[in-house]
Amino acid sequence: MKRSCLLLTLTLAIGCKPANDPAVKFSVLFTKEMSDQAQDGRLLLMLADNDKGEPRTQISDGLNTQLIFGVDVEGMKPGDEIAIGDDAFGFPIRSISHVPKGEYFVQALINRYETFKLKSGHIVKLPPDHGEGQQWNSKPGNFYSKPQKISFDPASQEVVKITMDQKIAPIEEPKDSKYIKHIRIQSKLLTEFWGKPMYLGAHVLVPEGFDTHPEARYPLMVFHGHFPSDFGGFSETPPDAKMDTTDYNARFGIYGYNKFQAREAHNFYTQWISKNFPRFLIIEIQHANPYYDDSYAVNSANVGPYGDAIMQELIPAIEKQFRGIGQGWARFTYGGSTGGWEALAVQMFYPDDFNGCFAACPDPIDFRAYCLVDLYKDKNAYWYESNFKKVPRPSHRNYLGQIQSTTEESNHFELTLGTKSRSGQQWDIWEAVYSPQGDDGYPKRIFDKLTGEIDPEVAKYWKEHYDLRHILERDWATLGPKLKGKIHIYCGDMDNYYLNNAVYLMEDFLKRTNNPFYGGEVAYGDRAEHCWNGDPVNPNYISRLRYNTMYLPKILKRITESAPKGADLKSWRY
Q1: CB-based contact 270:262 (threshold 8 Å)
Q2: What is the pTM for the complete model shown?
Q3: Within this chain, do residues 157 and 208 fall inside the same structural domain, yes or no?
Q4: Share of the chain above pLDDT 70, in %
Q5: Distance between CA atoms of 32 and 398, rounded to whole angstroms?
């Protein structure tokens, strides 16, 4: 049996094991029909105790996940059999030898890496996005095997052979319609950083009358959030009356949520074309990168100058093509979760370029509440510690406070998917965006991924560059006058990821501001979970679908009150 040496980067390097080692349980190869070239990447082995879907579709860090194990491979050639055993890092079971005896559906997949020669001189290997939004289990070009049913016994010395002879197909580009347009540009700034062509794109919702009012120029709304395959929550077609309503949404405890979402999307359309609705441009940005499904819209030592690329290259191109006004008083930004952090961050980092931000359920905006970790005082991210006891820190809860996962579990799930911040998941992208670049070209760890031990020097870097509350407080004398009346933050007080804790700390600061007073808004939803965005009337499962219709009237009011003398307030008010 041929064998490529595997390096598992945890706290030590684990060398190759002989093919007849009893710890080896699986052997994985890919065929020459997939590629005749050697491959680098993360080789993933998945086991599912059911056939409700392919194992690759049943993996998460939640309570219902199936089993996954991962190893790094370099130079894996077609026909090479990679032996997988207890040197593979697993989730939620750490070692393959601890998998219970039984019948499973097994599947293998390689998340393929490319080599990037960075502007810094470092060479790194990362999974590029191929239009899917950095999703390892649906990334075009990744090799995988068909699921096969096996009887597994950890005490057996039998080696299960798996052949990856399938390749995920390319994704079809979205097509323009009357109201939804698309733009894609090559970014000079990002291409220089990554050492190969890099692109930015956006889905653009144009207003009613866009074609029949060529003289009109429009305010621009930047709706930040995770990777959008197309402009979401907008549909010219009402839901089919016969649409199935038996689907059950466990999070909200209701049936027929798919039809409800479709109805809300059509309701947005009917408002959008109505006579009195604001005539704005709304964009959703595509800025997936080798670390995540979006860049966090700021400049980063590891992810690149996405902030400048979006502000200096993409937005001007959009405003030129779609007749944007192109001035700060006529630009606004909003979003939730990742998009909430981005909305506040770009308003702060480009204070003259936006006239207001609406940040809902933002990712941690004060690192004293990095979810449930104080990065400046705590020594370990995974545990509350006392002299005689260690208690795990939760990472996810429901609105009743019931825990679904811990911080250690979430990070060990990521470590299974990829070493060196390459999992494409939440904790790793925070690290990739906020950390300095390490000597190896990858992000410096904010804490040891295996043990949770926090690096205080990296925490200091985070504080000065990306702790939004700290930066506001540090620079209020210069930032304050530019941000007066522009900051609006909303969060449920039972946010699933404990993001409300950082909002409390931000609010404490904002309420103390003077010269000037911040003059914005901070509000909380009672027992509201993640994605609550400021609606005091409707439940979260409704309001989370109404970001645009909730914020656009507030933005129109802000424009009316704050536009400079001589500003164009007429051409787009038809």
Answers
A1: no
A2: 0.94
A3: no
A4: 96
A5: 47
